[in-house]
Amino acid sequence: MALGEPDESRKHSDELVKFGVMGEHKGWPLAGVDEYLSHCLAMREGRWNDAIAIGERVVADKYQPWDFSAKQVSELYTGDPFASLSKISTTAELEKLGGGSTDQQNRADLFTIIAEAGRVLNDSEAMALADKWASSVLAHEDQYSAMTVGNSKLIKAIISVAERNPTGAAPAYEEFKRLRGIWIWTHRGLSTDRLLALLAKTNGDTELAKTHFDEAVAFCTQANYGPELAWVYHDYAELLIESGGNTAFRKAIGLLNKALIETDRLSMTFLGDRLRSMKDSLNPHQLSPNELSDREIEVLSFVAKGATNSEIARAIFVTENTVATHVANILAKTGTANRTEAAAYAAENQIVPRTSNASLAPD
């Protein structure tokens, strides 16, 4: 599962089921380990009903209390994330977890989810709750397992991203870059490659962030981890939009469209609404108003209609050479290779002239 090979993960989980009744490992029944891994995999693949059923079965069978909030965690993706985060974050809910070594990791998992959900929802109280817990663990690392310490460092990294704090992001990047291309099974909030991309972005290294986002897309696509893939597309699009420029904008639109395919397929209502809001609010001329002049937009609108240079020249009362120059500038600024691609760009971005009333005249 950590390597993006879910089929192999399922095979080994089946072996755990067969072996689980034979003993325990450090106080954790192996059958419970299998349920935990199965739940993580169901969440990564967007099988929400399966994830909820596993969580409820674990609680009923009293393997471990780690998934008392299985329904709420699933609803972070498919329902009202604000209400779900509130339920997960309440002290009453968290007190259901005990104090044993495995329960420490259970709590680490939940606080990691709380930190990432708090970042996404801009919930400062949730992030503060997770930060306080992580700080208490890191102040006494020798009292906790390596996994719990690792989750605490992940929480600190997430908060650095949320606060746009390069002072915290730089060491966090160095800490997690050794896990590049791996998604540790206890890191339930976000994949390592997406984390590295966000940390690189926070550190001001846009090109490195793009590299990590590309790797995250490849990893999640191969593994069929649809929910995480949708979030990778979302965060990648945000980076490109902030970078500016029509070429970056055009790629961002493509990523948003791909993300919407995933959110619709997986019933991820909150993220789907967020993606649509991003698309609706974007205008290529608002993002980079000086990249295409009014005249170039006018010429591009005619190109999109299939007009020749001669037809455009007559419509806007300029020479064909002037039109050719405008077309060359349009191709360069939009990152398109020819008139057909430029026409597709115009259609995709709903480009219309700002001021001209010119129309094509018949020959």
What characteristics describe this protein?
two-stranded antiparallel sheet, mainly alpha, 363 residues, Arc Repressor Mutant, subunit A
How are the SSEs placed, and which strands pair?
Elements: H1 6-20, E1 24-25, E2 28-29, H2 30-45, H3 48-61, H4 70-78, H5 81-89, H6 91-94, H7 101-121, H8 124-138, H9 146-162, H10 166-176, H11 192-202, H12 206-223, H13 226-243, H14 246-266, H15 269-281, H16 284-287, H17 294-304, H18 309-316, H19 320-334, H20 339-348
Helix pairs in contact: 1-2, 2-3, 3-4, 4-5, 5-7, 7-8, 7-9, 8-9, 9-10, 9-11, 10-11, 11-12, 11-13, 12-13, 13-14, 14-15, 17-19, 17-20, 18-19
Describe this structure in words.
This protein has 363 residues and is mainly alpha-helical. It folds into 3 domains: 6-160; 225-287; 294-348, Winged helix-like DNA-binding domain superfamily/Winged helix DNA-binding domain (Arc Repressor Mutant, subunit A, Orthogonal Bundle). The protein has 20 helices and 2 strands. It has helices at 6-20, 30-45, 48-61, 70-78, 81-89, 91-94, 101-121, 124-138, 146-162, 166-176, 192-202, 206-223, 226-243, 246-266, 269-281, 284-287, 294-304, 309-316, 320-334, 339-348, and strands spanning 24-25, 28-29. The longest helix has 21 residues, at 101-121. It is elongated. The model is unreliable at 21-28, 97-102 and 284-290 (pLDDT under 50).
Shape: elongated
Side-by-side strand order of the widest sheet: 1-2
Helical percentage: over 70%
Number of strands: 2
Model regions low in confidence, pLDDT < 50 over at least 5 residues: 21-28, 97-102, 284-290
Largest sheet: 2 strands, antiparallel
The radius of gyration over CA amounts to 25 Å
Q: In sequence order, what are the helices and strands, one letter per element?
A: HEEHHHHHHHHHHHHHHHHHHH
Structural domains: how many = 3
- By DSSP (H or I, 4+ residues per run), the number of helices equals 20
Oligomer: single chain
Taking the alpha carbons of the first and last residues, their distance comes to 65 Å
- Nearest-integer average pLDDT: 81
The SS-based structural class is mainly alpha
Beta content comes to under 5%
